[in-house]
């Protein structure tokens, strides 16, 4: 057997490499050729030929095949050596160099005599070296730089290339060891895969389970080795990249880059090997699992089929249909017992058939074997059930037959008794004859009660169960019935002849029922249960009572829910001590999250009620006459995107909140993760003013009343449509409560509390800055969302907004101001008195400021403001300044050319300061952004001389037309505005410079 040729690695020649008589520094020639340097080495002539060949072979195998194909450039440094050393180097290179040579550069000896010898020797011995590449003799390092750039040479050759020989050897050794480990692991995986592919599957279930567990253990072991190898490779790669990661200015050398590329290639190979192995294992594991499932299925099938076969055999033996009423009743009991005993086997068979269907749907490899088994099981079950039903029907019919035969026999016996009881001496009078005839007619009338069919009909009805014994019995009974009827007929004829012989007139007498046998009258009145049920007057009250009880139940549930929330809050503030039985109370955080999940479920149900109770019934034909045209044409605007809210909360958000019940630290990330999805509330609130207008117009229509009564709601529809707004506030309050509880001061623990029995009182809480930061971000995000929703409702009242209002940026503030327009030729304050101010609603965005006209329009609540768009101005083209004394509520904004100037008067100085501060910050921010984008030499010099410096005084001016500032949220108030401007606006006079961008 031929031995495998192993490539040469650094470990094999580690001592020769450490001697450093030849190095691969990683430098490249001008055309990308690798450079091998022969530094000055005193004992070069004494290096064994084998060592020299091994080192050259290894160094030429390190570069990539693409780089090696260009050819190698050899630099021989012999400045301190002799001509004999140069000759020995060239001779060995010509004989033992394994790669392609492109160029040989020799730094000749620096001493004059050796240089002369070198010049003479190179002329006479050039042909002896048999070199096919040029040999260039260089006098100095500067000459070498003409052929190779300094950045590609090491420091001893006057270059800047950093090279550490020991580090290079360590990296190469580590890479080769990793490659060897990877190769060994791949061979192990291949061997394991071959073993799995050739393993013979056992026939018993325990053996298959043991085989599966054995394979699982081997796979886990190999998987752990792959993971460990991947970690080692990642660590080695990070060590090689460490010089570049420590300092952003430092770069990897070319040989380091090659090492990194080699490691990355090996890691990719490892990843591909791991993926291929995982795929192979998945297929094998699936096949083995399916084989085990098939074995279980076949085993269960054999057991169930045996049980069903026994049932069918027992059922086949149950062929007797009985010969009397008592016998048939006993057979019915036995049949019912057999049916009960077979129910368990039937359920197992049906369950096994369902399991087989699941295996077929999961694309089991033995589908052709499983499908017939399932069909056979269902066929056996159907046979047993059908045969059982057939047997039961036959026994019931047999019981009915025997009962009817017994009734007929009893009737015949009663008839014979009647005829025998009639005394012959009574026939001497007409009265006695009439009594006898009347008794006979009465008795014959009772035959209808027994529903006695004719002989032909009788045989046709019970032909299937007429065995020989039953047929004989039936024939006897029917013969007896025929004989009795004939006797009665003869008795009637005889009595009639006797009556005709009587000569004296018949005296009417009263009947004597006591002389006749006491038979049950065939004309028995039907029980009262057959009388059609009449609705009583109490029934409407019953329905009303039920509705009242449902309403009371809903109210009770609501009260219980509120009490639970209050108790939850009370328990959170006053936690109970741990119970003696070891039950653990929920923490405050879990109380909050549990409340959040419970109210989330209630919130989803309320939205679902709106959809099912108001939106879907609009398509019902029998309700369309109740819907006005305005509502029918605008139902999309009335309900907005409430379906989108329902889909998001029911399918996504509720499930994620439920995951936070046991892990409260995931709650903040849950809100942050769904930041974009929660923007559907902005769309909902933007449509809400329009929905309110439609509701005000249609709220009295009959359709809403019908839907509200059907749902049992006490509140009208639009109150329910405000639930999303309340839900956002609920999220804000719960996050705020959780943040207050998880604040750092509450989380700090005394180290002494860790000692003793304090650990029994509940889990210890530690400060988690990441959790707190996430909570703060989630709360800030929710507050911003509430602000944007409120502002969306306000912007919805603005008509004529430009289409590109989205480019204005985020809406920061809005409020009502008195506005004066200043013309270019009227710029003094005294001229402004002549002009009447205009009431304007002003919206401040990040990039623009928008002016809207205020119009008061009548509504149900009185006069309500509506706004119409007038104009907008870009902030980057504006300048702002405060006015002088006596105008502490006013400030001026103007464009760069000064053609447009507006004086704005706020309702108070605090509002003016808040607006002035916010606009100033925006202008300075935009100015800084422009400075960052433009070089300092290109920046225009700020014209401070053109900007008028105004002294701000704390004196209050006269109160004129009032202006109102609408807060952005509950947290943004005038008090906060004061706090923001308290650093800027002091009681002393301050200079303000605002530079227009």
TrEMBL record:
Residues 588-792 form the DH domain. Residues 500-587 are annotated as: Disordered. Residues 1-165 form the CRAL-TRIO domain. It comes from the Eukaryota. Transmembrane segments: none annotated. GO terms for molecular function: guanyl-nucleotide exchange factor activity. Residues 804-924 form the PH domain. One of its GO terms (cellular component) is cytoplasm. Residues 540-556 have a biased composition (Acidic residues). Residues 557-573 have a biased composition (Basic and acidic residues). Keywords: Guanine-nucleotide releasing factor. The keyword Disulfide bond does not apply. Belongs to the MCF2 family. This is MCF.2 cell line derived transforming sequence-like 2. It comes from Bos indicus x Bos taurus. The lineage of its organism: Eukaryota, Metazoa, Chordata, Craniata, Vertebrata. The gene is MCF2L2.
């Amino acid at each position: 057997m031929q031995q495998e040729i192993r490539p040469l690695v650094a470990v094999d020649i580690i001592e020769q490499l450490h001697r450093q008589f030849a190095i691969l520094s990683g430098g490249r020639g001008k055309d990308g050729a690798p450079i091998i340097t022969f530094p000055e080495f005193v004992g070069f002539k004494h290096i064994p030929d084998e060592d020299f060949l091994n080192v050259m072979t290894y160094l030429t195998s390190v570069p990539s095949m693409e780089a090696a194909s260009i050819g190698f450039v050899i630099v021989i440094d012999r400045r301190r050596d002799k001509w004999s050393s140069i000759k020995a180097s060239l001779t060995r290179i010509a004989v033992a160099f394994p790669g392609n040579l492109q160029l040989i550069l020799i730094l000749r000896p620096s001493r004059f005599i050796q240089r002369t010898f070198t010049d003479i020797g190179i002329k006479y011995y050039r042909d002896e070296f048999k070199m096919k590449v040029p040999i260039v003799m260089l006098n100095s390092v500067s000459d070498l730089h003409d052929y190779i750039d300094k950045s590609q040479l090491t420091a001893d050759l006057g270059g800047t290339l950093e090279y550490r020989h020991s580090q290079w050897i360590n990296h190469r050794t580590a890479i080769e060891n990793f490659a060897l480990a990877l190769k060994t692991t791949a061979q192990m995986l291949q061997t394991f895969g071959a073993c799995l592919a050739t393993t013979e599957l056992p026939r018993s279930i325990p053996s298959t389970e043991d085989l599966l567990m054995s394979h699982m253990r081997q796979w886990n072991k190999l998987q752990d080795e792959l993971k460990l190898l991947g970690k080692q490779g990642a660590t080695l790669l990070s060590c090689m990249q460490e010089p570049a990661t420590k300092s952003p200015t430092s770069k990897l050398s070319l040989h380091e880059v090659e090492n990194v590329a080699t490691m990355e290639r090996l890691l990719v190979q490892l990843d591909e090997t791991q993926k291929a192995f995982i795929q192979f294992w998945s297929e094998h594991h699936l096949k083995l699992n399916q084989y085990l499932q098939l074995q279980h299925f076949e085993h269960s099938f054999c057991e169930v089929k045996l049980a069903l076969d026994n049932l069918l055999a027992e059922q086949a033996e149950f062929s007797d249909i009985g010969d009397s009423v008592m016998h048939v009743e006993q057979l019915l009991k036995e049949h019912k017992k057999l049916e009960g005993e077979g129910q368990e086997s039937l359920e197992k068979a049906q369950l096994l058939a369902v399991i087989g269907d699941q295996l077929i749907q999961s694309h089991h490899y033995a589908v052709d074997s499983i499908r017939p088994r399932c069909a056979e099981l269902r066929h056996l079950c159907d046979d047993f059930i059908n045969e059982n039903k057939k047997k039961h029907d036959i026994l019931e019919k047999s019981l009915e037959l025997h009962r009817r035969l017994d009734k007929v026999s009893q009737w015949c016996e009663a008839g014979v008794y009647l005829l025998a009881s009639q005394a012959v001496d009574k026939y001497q009078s007409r009265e006695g004859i009439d009594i006898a005839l009347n008794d006979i007619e009465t008795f014959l009338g009772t035959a209808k009660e027994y529903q006695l069919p004719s002989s032909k009909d009788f045989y046709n009805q019970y032909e299937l169960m007429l065995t020989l014994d039953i047929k004989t019995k039936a024939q006897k009974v029917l013969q007896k019935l025929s004989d009795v009827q004939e006797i009665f007929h003869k008795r009637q004829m005889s009595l009639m002849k006797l009556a005709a012989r009587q000569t004296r007139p018949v005296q009417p007498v009263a009947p004597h029922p006591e002389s006749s046998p006491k038979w049950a009258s065939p004309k028995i009145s039907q029980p009262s249960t057959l009388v059609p049920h009449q609705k009583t007057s109490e029934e409407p009250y019953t329905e009303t009572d039920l509705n009242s009880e449902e309403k009371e139940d809903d109210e009770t549930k609501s009260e219980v829910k509120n009490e639970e929330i209050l108790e939850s809050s009370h328990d959170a503030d006053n936690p109970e001590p741990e119970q003696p039985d070891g039950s653990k109370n929920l923490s405050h955080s879990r109380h909050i999250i549990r409340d959040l999940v419970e109210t989330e479920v209630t919130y989803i149900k309320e939205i679902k009620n709106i959809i099912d109770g108001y939106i879907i019934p609009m398509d019902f034909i029998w309700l369309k006459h109740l819907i006005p045209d305005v509502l029918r044409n605008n139902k999309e605007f009335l309900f907005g995107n409430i379906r989108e809210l329902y889909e998001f909360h029911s399918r996504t958000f509720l499930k994620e909140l439920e995951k936070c019940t046991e892990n409260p630290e995931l709650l903040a990330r849950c809100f942050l993760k769904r930041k974009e999805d929660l923007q559907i509330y902005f769309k909902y609130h933007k449509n809400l003013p329009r929905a309110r207008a439609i509701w005000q117009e249609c709220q009295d229509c009959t359709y809403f009343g019908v839907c509200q009564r059907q749902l049992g709601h006490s509140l009208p529809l639009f109150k329910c449509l405000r639930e999303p707004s309340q839900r956002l506030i609920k999220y804000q309050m719960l996050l705020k409560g959780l943040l207050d509880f998880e604040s750092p001061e509450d989380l700090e623990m005394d180290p002494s509390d860790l000692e003793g029995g304090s650990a029994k009182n509940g889990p210890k809480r530690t400060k988690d800055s990441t959790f707190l930061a996430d909570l703060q971000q989630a709360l800030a995000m929710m507050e911003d969302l509430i602000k944007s929703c409120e502002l969306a409702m306000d912007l919805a009242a603005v008509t004529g907004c430009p289409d590109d209002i989205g480019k204005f940026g985020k809406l920061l503030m809005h409020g009502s101001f008195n506005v004066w327009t200043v013309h270019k030729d009227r710029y003094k304050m005294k001229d402004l008195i002549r002009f009447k101010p205009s009431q304007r609603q002003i919206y401040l965005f990040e990039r623009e400021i928008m002016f809207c006209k205020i119009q008061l329009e009548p509504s149900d609540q009185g006069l309500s403001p509506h706004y119409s768009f007038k104009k907008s101005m870009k902030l980057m083209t504006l300048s702002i300044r405060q006015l002088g004394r006596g105008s502490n509520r006013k400030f001026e904004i103007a464009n760069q050319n000064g053609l447009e100037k507006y004086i704005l008067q706020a309702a108070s100085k605090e509002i003016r300061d808040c607006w002035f501060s916010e606009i100033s910050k925006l202008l300075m921010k935009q100015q800084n952004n422009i400075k960052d984008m433009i070089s300092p030499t290109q920046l225009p010099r700020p014209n401070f001389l053109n900007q008028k410096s105004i002294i701000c005084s704390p004196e209050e001016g006269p109160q004129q037309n009032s202006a109102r500032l609408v807060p952005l949220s509950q947290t943004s108030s005038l008090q906060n505005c004061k706090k923001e401007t308290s650093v800027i606006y002091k009681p002393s006079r301050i200079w303000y410079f605002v530079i227009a961008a």
